[in-house]
Write a structure and sequence with these properties.
Distance between the termini of chain B: 36 Å
Oligomer: heterodimer
Largest interface: A-B, 22 and 22 residues
Order of helices and strands of chain B: EEEEEEEEEEE
Structural class of chain A: mainly beta
Number of helices of chain B: 0
Order of helices and strands of chain A: EEEEEEEEEEE
Strand content of chain B: over 45%
Mean pLDDT of chain A: 98
Number of helices of chain A: 0
Largest sheet of chain B: 7 strands, mixed
Low-confidence stretches of chain A: none
Radius of gyration of chain A: 13 Å
Shape of chain A: globular
Shape of chain B: globular
Helix content of chain A: under 10%
């Protein structure tokens, strides 16, 4: 079975940094696009970033460009999101998900909560 | 940017009802649309992709239709397990979710 397990969330002050991780198992990680999607408390889903199988192509939502970096380690079946210059509006549950052909998201982790507050 | 507008935002229904949720795109997205179900405290679950292709394991009471800018998700014979929030998502030009439709018990 496909399994995605996020970690690395927590409380961070505005302007701080955090790195999220997603450990993948149950499928050939290196053959799939991967994505991060977030959900602010009580709000809807927001796509954050995508990365191609070999890391050669990355896309970001405008609100995180220049602050967040998505990357992956195929040897370790892991996806990451480096988040810098965090703002209160980045507070959300962050999900990693497998992207079919980079299009839609067929498997999701349980999410990790990031809270940006002083 | 492509905007996705879902309606209604909340829908009250009873077990056995047929319910329809609409999703409109701000420009044509051909058939590049997916539907997800999310229950409180849980990750979203993919129901439908390519506007009308049912994901494996999803009950056949769920169906999707549409192309271009207007899409619908229909749940026939609503079951207790179907009370949840539903999101559409376009993947024609980057990736955008609708704001969600909460299906609640009448």
């Amino acid at each position: 079975d496909v399994q995605l397990v996020e970690s690395g969330g927590g409380l961070v002050q505005p302007g701080g940094s955090l790195r999220l991780s997603c450990a993948a198992s149950g499928f050939t990680f290196s053959k799939f696009w991967m994505t991060w999607v977030r959900q602010a408390p009580g709000k809807g889903l927001e796509w954050v970033a995508n990365i191609k199988q070999d890391g050669s192509e990355k896309h970001y939502v405008d609100s995180v460009k220049g602050r967040f970096t998505i990357f992956r380690d195929n040897a370790k079946n892991s996806l990451f999101l480096q988040m810098n210059s965090l703002r209160a509006e980045d507070t959300a549950v962050y999900y990693c998900a497998r992207a079919i052909l980079g299009w839609y998201f067929d498997s999701w982790g349980q999410g990790t909560l990031v809270t940006v507050s002083s | 940017d492509i905007q996705m507008t879902q309606s209604p935002s909340t829908l009250s229904a009873s077990v056995g009802d047929r319910v329809t949720i609409t999703c409109r795109a701000s420009q044509s997205i051909t058939s590049s649309l997916a539907w997800y179900q999310q229950k409180p405290g849980k990750a979203p679950k993919l129901l439908i992709h390519r506007a009308s292709s049912l994901e494996r394991g999803v009950p056949s009471r769920f169906s999707g239709s549409g192309s271009g800018t207007e899409f619908t998700l229909t749940i026939s014979n609503l079951q207790p397990d179907d009370f949840a929030t539903y999101y559409c998502q376009q993947y024609n030009n980057y990736w955008t979710f609708g704001h969600g439709t909460k299906v609640e018990i009448k």
